[in-house]
Structure formats: C-alpha cells, structure tokens
Amino acid sequence: MSVENDIQVKVKDIFQGYLEEKKHRKTPERFAILNEIYSHAGHFDIDSLYKKMKDKNYRVSRATLYNTMELLISCNLVRKHQFGKNLAVFEKAHQSKQHDHVICNSCGEVMEFCDPRLQKIISTVEDITGYQVIDHSLNLFGTCSKCKIINQ
Amino acid sequence: MSVENDIQVKVKDIFQGYLEEKKHRKTPERFAILNEIYSHAGHFDIDSLYKKMKDKNYRVSRATLYNTMELLISCNLVRKHQFGKNLAVFEKAHQSKQHDHVICNSCGEVMEFCDPRLQKIISTVEDITGYQVIDHSLNLFGTCSKCKIINQ
DNA sequence: TTCACTGCAAACGCTTTGCATATGG
DNA sequence: CCATATGCAAAGCGTTTGCAGTGAA
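ok -> structure tokens follow
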C-alpha cells in the first residue's frame, strides 16, 4: 500500500514538473486521469478508462482522455500500443523496462515479455539497411493456454 | 519479361485453383486485381490500388478490393501489414519468405529483413507463457539513410 | 435460371476537430 | 482577465455492410 502510494506521489511529481516546464495547465482532470491509470494494473483502452471514470462520477470526456494521453506519453508515464486497426492499448510506463507483447486472438489477453536477443536483431538491421532505429514493436499473436483448452 | 510473365501465369493458376476448390466464382474483377498487384512492385494500400485501377478504366469498387484481398490472403498470394491505425499495407507474397519491416518515420519508405533469431525468441516465449503463437509482427521505426542526411 | 458477386452509398468504430463554456495562472 | 482546457457533438477516415442489380456457372 505504502509503496503504491509512493509511486502515485512520484508520478504526480513527474507530471507536475512536466506540465510546468511545458507551460501547460495543471487541471484537476489531468491529475485524476493519471491517478486512475496508476491505481489500476495492466493494459487498458480509452473506452474502458472512460467508463471506469464515469462510474466513479468523474466528469470527463473522451477528448480530454485522448489529449491527456498525449501529454502522459510525452513525459514517459504512459506507453501506447497499436495491436490492430481498432485495438489501441495503453499502459503505465514509469520505470518499467521496454518490453513486447503476446496477444491472444480469442480472448484479447495481453502478456509481456522481454528478450535481449531482439536488440541484437535490431543492431544487425541497422548495419544492413543504414536505418537508425528509434523504436520498435514486436507483437506475437496466437492462443493463450486457457483458450487452447476451451477451443479444442 | 518472360520471368515476370511466368509468375503472372503461375499465380493466376494458384488463384484459379483456390477459387475452384472453395467453389468461389472466377470473376474478371478478381483476376484483374491479382494481375494489377503482381505487375506492380513493393507495398501498396487499398486506396492507391483503387486509384491505379480507376486510371486504367477498370470498373472496380473498394468493397470488391477489400473482398478480393481476403481471398488472396487466404491462398497466400498477398500478405497484409497494419503499420498503424490508419496505415494498412499489402504486398504480394508468392514464394517470398516471411519477413519483417523497417519503416522510415520521415518519408514512409519500407524496407524488409528476415532474421532467423526471431524464431528462437518466439519459441522461448511459447515455452514461458504457454501461448501457441500463430503469427507475429516486428516493425522497426526510425530514420532511413537518406532522411538522416536531409534532417541533420 | 440462380444465387454469388458487384458497385454504390450508407453505416461503423475509433479518433480528431470545432465550438461555446469554464477556469488556471 | 484571457488564453488554454474542457465537454459535447459533429466530422474524419479507413473499413465494412446492406441492398438492388448483374453475370458466372
């Protein structure tokens, strides 16, 4: 609990500092959204975040959610993943290491992994193509263990 | 030329066989679309394909293009890549080995690569997570050599 | 003749935008 | 104060769907 709280305070400080630096307003909505994200585990999409906040009687609009995501992504407190045309997913990113995803085609479950061998592949590709790689996305799609059993 | 022609004939045979097997109709539109794709190099999106065919005075609709893509994907003559929410790209796939992409953020250029080490990563992830991986997408984003020079 | 396929346009789902109102600095 | 943010609803954009007409088998 205390550790949870520490993180809440810490990310609030980071966000506050970022907003001040960039001369953006420190609105209650922005902090409410940050709080909601960091008191909640795992991956989420805009719609479920919207509904969750509506349920708690926050007055918040989707436009503001999208807006605030931009800010949170800019200061590395949130990361965005586009898993398919109509499946954009966000996750809190503070102090979490870069990682990749396995997505279940049946139930939509998302699991994370991190394999250092990927960095070697990227280095090789940079050498061969002359590109300077800034970002990557590696997504594996398939069936999770639960759905494997159900579907058979 | 002759080699190009051979491929055109070969993929037409494959498509024809597939349509017969699945009891789908062999419409002129379907073969016109296949032909257009295979007489054209590299990656393309639906809209540019649509415009290209309109320019040649084919009477074709977007709905039919999307429809036919499904068929061509089913018989492995076309592969689809979703590079971002509003950036779906297709490419001819006959006899080409599975590969991944480096995309230039500045000019949109797409290059391909194939690194066997990725299969090892996938196997490891299957072992750890219990997922059965059916498909993957690895995209590297960055700056191509040309844009590196221009942007500096 | 029949029904899968087609073109066209309207509907979709997520995201962005426009605008009037509210509020942080 | 007033420029930036906000909520709401309308518009955007690639894709999908519904439907009446067409043509492959």
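The domain at 3-92 of chain B is CATH 1.10.10.10 (Arc Repressor Mutant, subunit A).
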